Amino acid sequence: MVAMERVDWTDPDLQRLVADQEQEIDARYDDGDHDNHLDAETVTVAVLARDEDTKEAIACGVLRDPAPSFEAGTGELNRMYVHPDHRRRGIGKEILRALEAAAKDRELGQLVLETGIQQPEAIGLYTSEGYRIIDNYPPYEDDLDSRCFAKAIGEEG
Fold first, then answer.
1. Which of 1, 4, 71, 89 lies at a 20 to 30 A Cα distance from 96?
2. With 0-12 CB in 10 A as exposed, 13-18 as middle and 19+ as buried, what is 101?
3. 8-17, 24-33, 83-92: range with lowest mean pLDDT
4. Strand partners, 57
């Protein structure tokens, strides 16, 4: 079982998980380009999942709104990550739903996100939750390794 917790972008546990996520992405894509301008000013909601027994932070995700390259009313999901020891337990889905609830609270009408073609588990999660493939948006429009998705908030997945 996990407990969801909203934290600041600067939270040390969140930053540790973000660093772990970046390392995993580097290994899958053999690059080190994580310049998506996330910081305390652009991240509006950050969520951690903690193991209820150990209190260890094991998963995270963030929301920023408005999403760059989109009009007001669209938020962007980012830094979705579940530690490998805790995968395949539905925790990613719980993080996703917590961020969707936060987006509804912020009265956003749509969420967008970018993931990579070498992350089939992420693509499976998003499509199973009602996200649809869209044209790659900036800065991913020319990135053949990227897949972008969108979901209208309030639609059933």
1. 71
2. middle
3. 24-33
4. 50
Residue 149 and residue 113 in contact, taking contact as beta carbons nearer than 8 Å: yes
In terms of Cα–Cα distance, which of 139, 138, 145, 143 is closest to 117?
Answer: 145
Contacts of 31 (CB under 8 A, 6+ apart): 25
Picking from 151, 142, 19, the residue whose alpha carbon sits closest to that of residue 79 is 19
Both tokens of 12, joined, read: 């040390």
Report whether 65 contacts 77 (CB < 8 A). Answer: no
Let me know if 42 is exposed, middle or buried by CB neighbors in 10 A (0-12, 13-18, 19+). Answer: middle
Q: What is the pLDDT of residues 25-42, one digit of tens each?
A: 888 887 656 556 788 888
pTM equals: 0.91
